From TrEMBL:
<feature type="transmembrane region" description="Helical">
    <location>
        <begin position="234"/>
        <end position="255"/>
    </location>
</feature>
<keyword id="KW-0967">Endosome</keyword>
<dbReference type="GO" id="GO:0005794">
    <property type="term" value="C:Golgi apparatus"/>
</dbReference>
<feature type="domain" description="CBS">
    <location>
        <begin position="636"/>
        <end position="702"/>
    </location>
</feature>
<keyword id="KW-0677">Repeat</keyword>
<dbReference type="InterPro" id="IPR000644">
    <property type="entry name" value="CBS_dom"/>
</dbReference>
<dbReference type="GO" id="GO:0031902">
    <property type="term" value="C:late endosome membrane"/>
</dbReference>
<feature type="transmembrane region" description="Helical">
    <location>
        <begin position="194"/>
        <end position="214"/>
    </location>
</feature>
<feature type="transmembrane region" description="Helical">
    <location>
        <begin position="551"/>
        <end position="576"/>
    </location>
</feature>
<keyword id="KW-0868">Chloride</keyword>
<keyword id="KW-0472">Membrane</keyword>
<keyword id="KW-0458">Lysosome</keyword>
<dbReference type="InterPro" id="IPR014743">
    <property type="entry name" value="Cl-channel_core"/>
</dbReference>
<keyword id="KW-0067">ATP-binding</keyword>
<dbReference type="GO" id="GO:0005886">
    <property type="term" value="C:plasma membrane"/>
</dbReference>
<feature type="transmembrane region" description="Helical">
    <location>
        <begin position="104"/>
        <end position="124"/>
    </location>
</feature>
<feature type="transmembrane region" description="Helical">
    <location>
        <begin position="262"/>
        <end position="279"/>
    </location>
</feature>
Amino acid sequence: MEEDSADPYLPYDGGGDTIPLQEISRRGSNYAMSNGGGAAGGVSSSTHLLDLLEEPIPGVGTYDDFHTIDWVREKCKDRERHRKINSKKKESAWEFTKSLYDAWSGWLVVTLTGLASGALAGLIDIAADWMNDLKEGVCLSAMWFNHEQCCWGSNETTFAERDKCPQWKTWAELILGQAEGPGSYIMNYFMYTYWALAFAFLAVCLVKVFAPYACGSGIPEIKTILSGFIIRGYLGKWTLMIKTITLVLAVASGLSLGKEGPLVHVACCCGNIFSYLFPKYSKNEAKKREVLSAASAAGVSVAFGAPIGGVLFSLEEVSYYFPLKTLWRSFFAALVAAFVLRSINPFGNSRLVLFYVEYHTPWYLFELFPFILLGVFGGLWGAFFIRANIAWCRRRKSTRFGKYPVLEVITVAAITAIVAFPNPYTRQNTSELIKELFTDCGPLESSQLCQYRSQMNGSQAYPEGSDAAATPGVYSAMWQLSLALIFKIVMTIFTFGLKVPSGLFIPSMAIGAIAGRIVGIAVEQLAYYHHDWFLFKEWCEVGADCITPGLYAMVGAAACLGGVTRMTVSLVVIVFELTGGLEYIVPLMAAVMTSKWVGDAFGREGIYEAHIRLNGYPFLDAKEEFTHTTLAREVMRPRRNDSPLAVLTQDDLTLGELQAIINETSYNGFPVIVSKESQRLVGFALRRDITIAIENARRKQEGIVLNSRVYFTQHAPTLPADSPRPLKLRSILDMSPFTVTDHTPMEIVVDIFRKLGLRQCLVTHNGRLLGIITKKDILRHMAQMANQDPESIMFN
């Protein structure tokens, strides 16, 4: 039975009814990391021996691979470290310098991350452009120039054929010596396919051999890591190196993928590597995640030239814990990264991005209707893409198909190259395609999309670039764009999830931009032929420049990207930073919001959450709501028919019994109780910490044998005179584990887990220990409530 004399509100210590006062005060502020030394005098002689365990044990408080960090413990560790530095800083000038260095290390690490991200992004942009043009030909005057740079200095270019110059030779001209004719077309076709396959093969081989973690976009894993999961090597130097090289190869191979998502992964690798230079971050997993949040902002900043969009992306999409300090550091990292990229100037247009546009006409209220239609298209495409891509990835995981990643990449690359070459819109780099679709038709545009009749013969009195009748050139361009749209939709489903670095931003934007441009041209032609309709009559005069098809492409791109990722605020900011179209925020907001609503009608999760669930990572999404009326006792383990909970008693276990418990179970931690009879809770000890402490004690202390008594109390229990030396493990005990009662509603428990980032929570009834709830139990329970197989969702 429970002892009546002991105060139930004090942590029960097993040391009789009275607890030393200093012990109570010490427990109030301190967490289990301190060791509670300095007991009252007159204690049994074994405590007077030099207890080597009173100093912190190296390795205690670290984590294994594929485990979740304890946010509460990490925050307490950081506060303890901060107090120590503050108390010492007045002692000497050296300690004061150390405290300054500690305070500034956060800014230093994000500055280094920003510098490295900007430099790597510039390098990737330049290399990808050059290798992309290598599929079509080579610059004889300077091998390292891409097509555009090659023809910059040439005097022989004409306005109509601005991309033809004698210095640039296609492969057919080099090999066959002829530029035109069926032979040269077949030769160019063959070389294009050959280079595409070579790049794709090299990329997948490098990933497979050197860094398997370098595949995919990396954003689902980064979201999981930021929520407190540990994936060792995912942000390491090998992954960084291979990802940078293979990203260039994958983009140049012409596969339907972008480099924007992987750039976030690259930036996070930089942040992780630099955080090891500063003990404040290398020794604390929660602090390291603050650096990674800032790094992901820098990644988006260089991917899109959108520093503010990057900060919002980190806040809205990837970060789990985002205090105000991290917001400022993210802002600074994004600024540094954008500044470095701007000074490298990879595109030669003094802009951070390839598709900077300037539109000159305002938009009209009537146009909100087609913009909202584009939003509906974006939402439908997003929902369809997520379902199709997840079904394909699941098939890849569960069938033999997934065992041959190299063959799969080669097959997809071959199909992509063979189908893409005949169509000029699919042959070119996706970023170039988006640029062409965004661009407004002016007198300087030689694109087929801009062949309007008024510009063909100058005799008409229309101003340049007005809404004039489209020529057959525009209609054939529309056909080619429609085919390109179908091709992109199909290929992107099969490409995302291949074993090469693959982003989703650019292909989604390309699909939306194609659809938007087609809608834009259709509306423009309507306005031209039916300018007497009441819709156009009020604001569109004959021959005036009313409708900008490029704007429709921009809105469509935002809508499709929003449909796939379900981003809202950050997406609108990224797109208007990307294009400089500040006037067009309202159309963008309307389209993005519509696409989110339409997409959410078919399923609440975006592509990244869907991939997290497919891979079974233990990720509790803060956006999801838990609406079921279950109680903690229905979710906790052990269940009715299970074996009882594995517990440790505070002072009557021997070392042999403790090791037997550890060897027979696979649990990550054990509740410590007063005794088997009372079941009153003392604390919680982690399996890893126990094993490290035992090894450490065996190394440093003599006389520790299998029948040594193990105790978690402040003072050693009274033992017979001839018994072996006891082992004190109080220093690794978490004295304030989170507990809930068995009647706590699960929605509160889920909220506690989300907001505090817990790993486990103990369930008590009238102060007695009943069971335990872990993060995985909660995920299984949520899956069960959603009628999914709970075992299929767990990380294997």
